[in-house]
């Protein structure tokens, strides 16, 4: 059979779906084809929040999958709402790409060397808050559009710089535009940034499909993404909330940094947590960190570490610092 891969039609979506298609065929020999779907979020000029925020990009693809018009869909996991979607499940998380944000500035400039009052574009409240915290003098310009449109604002001179995800630039072969990479400890990015989610129907049972999912899955990437997204889930926050997260998964532990920013950069709350994993990847949560279930899977530990950190953020005043829920 040929596995039909549903994807949005943007250059980034096509690039990442193409990467997955190639990976599946290389690893399993199963043939694939891309099936592009145009979503309202792709064609609209309205702001993300007026479109309904989280999930505008995902819902058309999901309807397409539920209707049986494709066998799997490829999402940027950071754009995917954290709630379970009826009838669908995440069947695989491939190895994660670079989770960092970058600055793409004119003339090789960096955040420290941009001139006073420089115009920097981003559509993300988190990135706007991080920029304002580091450089309160900057003019932060709300922009929309795909990666090439955003880079175009710098090429045309309309903006001095834009902030973009390293992962998207990498998938499009545009990393030569990067003038600075922000490190994840001081500039944590959107939960699950750089990770893809492969979504399938709940009842998917075809051998080729299940084999393909297994062949591309990376449980460490999934655990890191789950830990980060569990912060959002617990806070009932969406992808537009000014929240950054960064998880690392080693043989022995999941560590998680979570940050909530005042939208104008005037304040921030940054906390860390961790959960221990034993060698067999059955996990125990260490007594020094959060006390939790004595034995659980790596994914359960990731969920636990994320929701425990969210509770600590709430206790520390996260909801007073920033609007967490949207609509
Ligand atoms: N919100 C748009 C979006 N969704 C996914 C990516 C690419 C990064 C990724 O795959 O996480 C981007 C572009 C960006 O944030 O610069």
Count the strands?
15
Tell me the radius of gyration.
20 Å
Mean pLDDT: 91
The computed structural class is alpha/beta
> Any idea how many domains?
3
- What gap, in angstroms, lies between the N and C termini? 43 Å
**Strand order in space, largest sheet:** 2-1-3-10-4
Q: How much helicity do the residues have?
A: 25-40%
Low-confidence stretches: 47-54, 282-295
Order of helices and strands: EHEHHEEEEHEHEHEEHHEEEEEHH
Small molecules bound: ligand PBG
Q: Can you tell me the CATH architecture of the largest domain?
A: 3-Layer(aba) Sandwich
What summary fits the major beta sheet? 5 strands, mixed
Number of helices: 10
In the CATH hierarchy, the third-tier topology of the largest domain is known as D-Maltodextrin-Binding Protein, domain 2
Domain Porphobilinogen deaminase N-terminal: 3-205
GO molecular function, one term: hydroxymethylbilane synthase activity
GO biological process, one term: protoporphyrinogen IX biosynthetic process
Modified residues (S-(dipyrrolylmethanemethyl)cysteine): 239
Structure commentary:
By secondary structure, the chain is α/β, with parallel strands linked by helices. The chain has 3 domains: 2-94 and 196-217, 3-Layer(aba) Sandwich (D-Maltodextrin-Binding Protein, domain 2); 101-181, D-Maltodextrin-Binding Protein, domain 2 (3-Layer(aba) Sandwich); 224-318, Porphobilinogen deaminase, C-terminal domain (Double Stranded RNA Binding Domain). The protein is 33% helix and 24% strand. It has 10 helices and 15 strands. It has a 5-stranded mixed beta sheet, with helices on both faces. The chain has a 5-stranded mixed beta sheet with strand order 7-6-8-5-9, with helices on both faces. Helix 1 packs across helix 7 and helix 8 packs parallel to helix 9 (298-315). It is globular and about 60 Å long. It binds the ligand NCc1[nH]cc(CCC(=O)O)c1CC(=O)O. Ligand PBG binds next to strand 8 and helix 6. Its cofactor is dipyrromethane. Keywords: Porphyrin biosynthesis, Transferase. One of its GO terms (biological process) is protoporphyrinogen IX biosynthetic process. It catalyses: 4 porphobilinogen + H2O = hydroxymethylbilane + 4 NH4(+).
